[in-house]
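Q: what sequence does this backbone want?
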């Protein structure tokens, strides 16, 4: 690296400028036009090289990403915390399972978190995802139940909080890290959803090389924007299916009713939950329809 360059990490971008954390502090940078030619857009989480020889620092290179998601635009995540309210808004298992599959496909660890447990029991939901092999947390932002365990788990990681509008993402962030003092959303009872309070993606440094991103809430119909899955690969992203895939009678088994399907047999034995299997069928069917429409 040249003497007039610094390594840095993008914390956020606003109006074509990038806030980059470096050893010289947070610098307000522009980006070279060559990124557009290469079809690369620097995003929060990117590790970059910054040229500081000019009056305005310039990002000259984006280092290799270990992962990347288009919405919200983020790179180099260790985990995605998927926040689900046990009540108001009502949890949508299909959307949760679709998001989990999308992040599994990107090799980003999905971590379901159930909020508002002081208002409704979450044992049934929790058991589904623990059985599937996920690390799951249950918290209340009213009395801070489960917050300390979650904070310990997240130490030293780079991660994002995502979830439907109104599930309590910003409240969870406030409980975890009160110093961030983020604006919280009140549920709009008339619409049955929350008001958008997070309008941009920003990484917040937490010390010990840890970062967290709060992200804009989304409606149910917007969840697909996080990524698409080829129908032929979806079974690979249901982690509880993986031990049985090689035992299916026919290569290319779709696990939708074929003779000799080991995944269906595992479901019948109770080794795969009915809820997760039903989500798989729906996600597979939707992907097939989209692929056929595209053709």
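A:
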């Amino acid at each position: 690296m040249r003497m007039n360059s610094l390594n840095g990490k993008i914390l956020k971008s606003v109006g074509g400028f990038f806030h980059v954390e470096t050893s010289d502090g947070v610098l307000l940078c522009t980006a070279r036009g060559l990124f557009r030619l290469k079809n690369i857009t620097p995003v929060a989480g990117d590790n970059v090289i910054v040229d500081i020889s000019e009056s305005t620092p310039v990002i000259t290179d984006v280092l290799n990403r270990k992962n990347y998601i288009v919405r919200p635009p983020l790179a180099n995540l260790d985990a995605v915390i998927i926040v689900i309210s046990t009540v108001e808004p009502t949890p949508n298992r299909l959307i949760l399972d679709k998001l989990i599959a999308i992040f599994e496909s990107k090799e980003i660890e999905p971590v379901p978190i159930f909020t508002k447990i002081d208002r409704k029991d979450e044992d049934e939901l929790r058991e589904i995802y623990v059985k599937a092999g996920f690390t799951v947390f249950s918290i209340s932002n009213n009395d801070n139940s489960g917050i300390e365990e979650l904070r310990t788990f997240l130490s030293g990681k780079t991660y994002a909080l995502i979830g439907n509008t109104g599930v309590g993402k910003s409240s969870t962030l406030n409980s975890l890290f009160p110093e961030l003092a983020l604006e919280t959303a009140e549920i709009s009872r008339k619409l049955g959803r929350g008001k958008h309070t997070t309008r941009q993606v920003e990484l917040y440094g937490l010390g010990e090389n840890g970062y967290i991103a709060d992200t804009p809430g989304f409606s149910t119909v917007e969840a697909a924007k996080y990524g698409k899955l080829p129908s032929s690969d979806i079974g690979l992203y249901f982690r509880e299916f993986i031990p049985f895939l090689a035992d299916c009678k026919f290569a290319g088994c779709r696990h939708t009713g074929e003779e000799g399907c080991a995944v269906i047999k595992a479901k019948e034995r109770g080794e795969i939950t009915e809820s997760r299997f039903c989500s798989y069928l729906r996600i597979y069917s939707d992907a097939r329809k989209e692929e056929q429409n595209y053709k």
